[in-house]
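Lab intake sheet, docking and co-folding queue.

SAMPLE TYPE: protein with bound small molecule
LIGAND NAME: coenzyme A
LIGAND FORMAT: SMILES
REQUESTED OUTPUT: full 3D complex as structure tokens
PRIORITY: normal
SUBMITTED BY: R.K., bench team

The fields below were copied directly from the construct record.
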Amino acid sequence: MSELRTRDVVDADLPAVLAIRNRSFGPLGTGGDAWWQRVSAETLGGRMIAVVDESGTVLGAGRIRPYEQAWGGRHLRMGGVAGVYVEPSARGRGVATTLTRALITRMGELGDVVSCLFPTTATLYRRSGYEIGGVQTRTTYAAHLLRDLGTSRTGRGGSGGLRPATRADAQWMHDLARAASARHGVSGPMVPSVAALEGTLERDELIAYAVDGGFVLYDLSEQAVTVEHLVATTPEAAGTLWGVVGSGSSATPTVHTYLDPRDPVTLGLGGLPAKEVRQIPWMGRVVDLGAAFDGRGFGPHTSVEVDLLVEDADAPVNSGRWTLAVSAGRGTATRADGGPGGSVLRVEARGLSALWCGWSVSRLRQAGLATGGTPEGDAALDAVFAGQPFITEYF
Ligand SMILES: CC(C)(COP(=O)(O)OP(=O)(O)OC[C@H]1O[C@@H](n2cnc3c(N)ncnc32)[C@H](O)[C@@H]1OP(=O)(O)O)[C@@H](O)C(=O)NCCC(=O)NCCS
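RESULT FIELD (auto-filled):
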């Protein structure tokens, strides 16, 4: 096998990278050129890496999108791995494996403390320490039930200050979304950046409305509405926004949503969500355990201290024995190499990623991803990492 090297993608490589992309996923569709320009601009200069052979020919590439993701209601820098593809004639020789490892190292250097991706194959990413973290859920509602939420709260014609949202609202929307993640203490959602919101609003990519205490961004196509974001701080704001989403029920009877699977709309709806949900699995990875643990949030009434032994060849900064302590909603991870004896739970990178994403230790044991430890230690780790992370945005 020829020798593989990794290096940053530069402007001149983009045609070669795009050609591999098109040989992997087919030609770019409508609007694809603008999308390609945008993602390239976002990741060139450190966030797009190529694998090349000894002659310098690009064999594969991958991107790290710069995201902010809620964990326990606090926000961490998350590297969203996407655009991983390998020239068909170079497949099966470890190009993607070499690339994934380089992406993890780069995320560590950039300060992205966790990483997520939507895989087409789990095996490739498991090799590099990713595990299934959860799903992106599409929940569907009958539009007329949502319409009723609006009319029952505000009366017909009453719109509660409803107005189209504009580019100037981007910062306000970002702040509302961030505050909502914190309020609900959720794990998984990515807060759209101010720049991303500005772009979406400027390009009229989604239909956008604002109201006192909330906003909604949705799409309308193929006889269905698809809600991408809906944030509300009061029942009145929620009612008005859901009311406008459902207001076209005569023409578009179906409303899909990519939101928290436990969005409170379910509690107020005068009917049931559709039985069919669509779920897309995503994988997560801890890139820098110490920094990620110190930065994320925890349940304010959780008070616990427990040791964990990690072996992580691709992110050596995670390796070693750690004391994980949680109190008053905050955590600290302290190196405890040479700590007192006793049996400590031992995980490799995949087990650490699964634990981080809320899989209980009993499940890790059953999957062969954890060894050692004690029942007491297992319960403590379950208390630390309890949660059901969900991602709402596909990337
Ligand atoms: C998936 C892809 C990136 C793998 O690239 P590659 O350089 O051949 O991967 P590697 O040689 O490093 O193989 C790593 C592992 O990935 C898995 N893998 C690779 N191709 C696979 C496929 N088509 N189906 C299932 N698993 C696959 C295998 O487990 C493989 O290990 P193995 O060969 O020991 O079984 C490449 O086939 C590709 O570009 N596919 C189309 C685009 C795509 O799916 N990208 C991934 C987006 S998340």
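REVIEWER NOTE: Residues 24, 84-86, 91-97, 119-121, 123-124 surround coenzyme A (CB under 6 Å).
SIGN-OFF: pending second check by T.M.
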